[in-house]
TrEMBL record:
Gene3D superfamilies: Nucleoside Triphosphate Pyrophosphohydrolase. Residues 26-234 form the Nudix hydrolase domain. It comes from the Bacteria. This is NUDIX hydrolase. Its cofactor is Mn(2+); Mg(2+). The keyword Membrane does not apply. Keywords: Hydrolase, Magnesium, Manganese, Metal-binding. One of its GO terms (molecular function) is hydrolase activity.
Length: 283
């Protein structure tokens, strides 16, 4: 897959944006979590395919994630791990409240879309099973915005295990896209005993895929946007989940916002992604 190629539908959006001479939309904050496990295919990642009817990234394979809910910024949630101030440094944010909201959104969206919950009764444990009907109803109510994530945790005596997350990268949707996001990508090891299951109102298929398997299928049977594909290129440089988590124990790199190549309808990305693609992507 060529990560600089315009994804399906983007050429039309670019033409419309150019014709309207419109000002770019302000990006919304969002969070996405790369769930990792060690499997028969080496490092495996949990992926979901967005329904084709979705206005943004319809038909694309993505990691669990979504927009920040204003209620994610509350300080009422039990919190274990780096403080919001430390997370602000890791995410290159000036506002501790914004950092709290992004981290909370990462955990909430992961639970909504996969059923994996990075929370536990205390700072040394996580819930061991989230597959029952009570948990399914909690996921439904969260997705419908009928309840706040803080209420789901408080009612069950749980605290947020932010120490299980690592910030990976930040991508900003190109200016010509009418729906724009500033998405913070996190990595985490899927907790023992929990089972990811991702079909929801936003996705119609979900599965674990090996990193090499996903790279081989990208652009063919698996359609990805550049942030997801480039994330796989980065993950392929490591031999274990422990190595990935260790590499992410630092502030995220500068945000990536794909630009447009003035000589053709393609994206411009940081040069190291082209180098990774040339050395890593299957032929």
């Amino acid at each position: 897959m060529d990560p600089t190629a315009l994804p399906p539908g983007f050429a039309e959006q670019l033409a419309d944006y150019t014709a309207r001479a419109a000002a770019p939309a302000e990006p919304r904050s969002a969070a996405s979590t790369v769930l990792l496990r060690e499997g028969a295919r080496g490092i495996e990642v949990f992926l979901m395919r967005r329904r084709t009817q979705m206005a943004f990234a319809g038909g694309m394979v993505v990691f669990p994630g979504g927009g920040v809910d204003p209620r994610d910024a509350t300080d009422e949630v039990g919190w274990v791990g780096p403080s919001p101030a430390e997370w602000a440094q890791r995410l290159r944010l000036d506002d501790e409240g914004a950092a709290r909201a992004v981290v909370c959104a990462a955990v909430r969206e992961t639970f909504e879309e996969s059923g994996v919950l990075l929370a536990g009764p205390d700072g040394s444990s996580v819930v061991d099973d989230t597959s029952g009907p009570e948990w399914a109803e909690a996921r439904r109510a969260l997705e419908a915005r009928e309840t706040a994530f803080t209420d789901v945790l408080r009612e069950r005596g749980l605290v947020l295990r932010t120490d299980l997350l690592r910030a990976w990268t930040c991508w900003i949707t190109p200016e010509f896209e009418p729906r724009r996001y500033r998405t913070y990508f996190f990595v985490t090891a899927s907790p023992e005993g929990q089972h990811a299951a991702g079909v929801s109102t936003e996705s119609d298929a979900a599965a674990w895929m090996g990193v090499g398997e996903a790279l081989a299928a990208a652009g063919g049977t698996v359609m990805m946007l550049p942030p997801q594909y480039c994330t796989f290129l980065e993950l392929a440089q490591y031999g274990s989940i422990a190595e990935i988590l260790a590499a992410a124990d630092r502030p995220i790199p500068e945000p990536v916002m794909p630009g447009l190549d003035p000589e053709g309808p393609s994206l411009v990305l940081p040069a190291h992604y082209a180098e990774l693609n040339a050395s890593t992507a299957p032929r």
